[in-house]
Amino acid sequence: MGSLKKQEPLMSRSRYLLKNMSLFTVSNMASKLLVFLLVPLYTNVLSESDYGIADVMQTTLLLLVPLLSLNAGEAALRYGIEYSGKRGSILRSGLRHVLRSALLTAAVCLAMALAMSASGTGAEYRGHILIFALLFACNAIYEFMLLYAQGSEQVEIMITGSICCTVITIISNILFLLVFKMGLYGYLFSQIAAFCISFVIMYRLLHGETLLKEDEDRGLRTEMTRYGRGMLLYSTASWANNAIDRYFILFMFGSVQNGLYGVAYKIPAILTVFQRIFAQSFQMSATKEYREEDSGRFFGELFELYNAVMLTGCTGILLVLRPLAAFMFRKGFYEAWIMVPPLLISVIFGALEGYLGSICLAHKDGRSMGIATGVGAVVNIILNAAAISAFGAVGAAFATLISYFTMFAIAYALTVRHVRLEVDIKRDIAGYILVLIAGGVTMYGVKSDTAEYTACAVCALILLVLLFLYSAQAAYVVKRVKALAGRAGS
């Protein structure tokens, strides 16, 4: 990243990014910390099979919501920043796509349930299918409103909605799971309630009823629809990389193993908190900064900072993985920890690929990211078919890691067409090798207590080496934290 003296003038341009990051930090840290504390409740109350079914439902939502709504939320985010005077038109256009997708899903789910009832088969799944239709509708309008608020640069309202969703989820989970003991249905109903109530809160705070009275710009609606369709390959392939392994595990080993695999993702979600904070903020900044002459230097420096935090954060979690898993994973879920290292490392490459994707999308180039994620999805499917049959759920975790690295490498090559990032690629490669070693020795530590202590020592050493390699970035982070602490104390 260069010396801090050279760095500071450029970073002063990123106040918009840093302001949004501080706001998103409050939202994500509060939300994820509370949800993190709920994991022991889920693994204690729900069976591995119930958790596996819920995980498949949530994973399916990740595919169907952007696919059926034509990425209405992403279009609202992208065009809301650029066309600030037409946000009523953007809201109307986006909600139209979302409501159509909800009606289509409801019709299909109802038809499936009726067909099962007529044939006398699948009685245990009819209720799940009908609840999924309701879950889809509530999740779709909630996710759209989050992205619309972000695109309207109303980050405070977006954060309010996110925190409300978390609080309602916690309260309803305690009520439905512990008081009424509704099991899987209680878990799903708590999410439905949280999505609906949070949507209404954001809609009212944004004065949605007033915005919808504005005239709709049909030209902008057409452009947004075209943009959303252009992102379909990207969003679908991204889903495949995130989720296809769970379907392989479900069909090859059943819902119990899928439940273990799903809960293994809860620890990588800790690192995903920072990734989400940065991605949400950077996506807004990329749209504002991509036309600047020195964008290669600006984006390069942020890439190095992001890279440094992800690498050191991953290694730090690997260092305390076993006791962390013992706290989070109760009963039969504990054995899921062995799948965490490759999934955790895959978060790094997924985050960096997402960073590069934001640059391409700022240039309205969804095709390049579609290519990168599409190739990654193909690699993921091929490796899952081979690795799961040979190594079980652990094989799926490694397939995910390799596919994410493939995506990242292709995205890096394609992004150069828009921006030539000023980065130290040799140092970054060394960092990736070090974190792979840390993941390998952590998994090796399962063999004995001595091996576990050795793995911890190696991870600690690698963490120190990474801090040395990225000392400039570490110094910058410390400086920013002190500055924020000084403002908070004044």
Characterize the biggest β-sheet.
Answer: none
Q: Mean pLDDT, nearest integer?
A: 84
Helix percent reads over 70%
Rg estimate, integer Å: 22 Å
What is the distance, rounded to the nearest whole angstrom, between the alpha carbons of the first and last residues? Answer: 31 Å
Whole-number tally of structural domains: 2
Stretches with pLDDT under 50, minimum 5 residues:
1-12
Percent strand: under 5%
- Helix tally equals 21
**SS-derived structural category:** mainly alpha
Overall form: globular
Number of E-state strands: 0
Order of helices and strands: HHHHHHHHHHHHHHHHHHHHH
What does this structure look like?
- The chain is mainly α and 490 residues long.
- The protein folds into two domains: 1-36 and 232-490, no CATH class; 72-230, no CATH class.
- Helices cover 85% and strands 0% of the residues.
- The chain contains 21 helices and no strands.
- It has helices spanning 4-11, 15-45, 48-68, 72-82, 87-119, 123-151, 155-179, 183-205, 208-211, 218-230, 232-253, 255-264, 268-289, 295-319, 321-328, 340-362, 366-391, 393-415, 425-444, 449-469, 471-489.
- The longest helix is centred in the first third of the chain and has 33 residues, at 87-119.
- The protein is globular and about 60 Å long.
- The chain starts with a helix and ends with a helix.
- Residues 1-12 have low confidence and may be disordered.
Keywords:
490 residues, mainly alpha, 2 domains, 21 helices, disordered N terminus
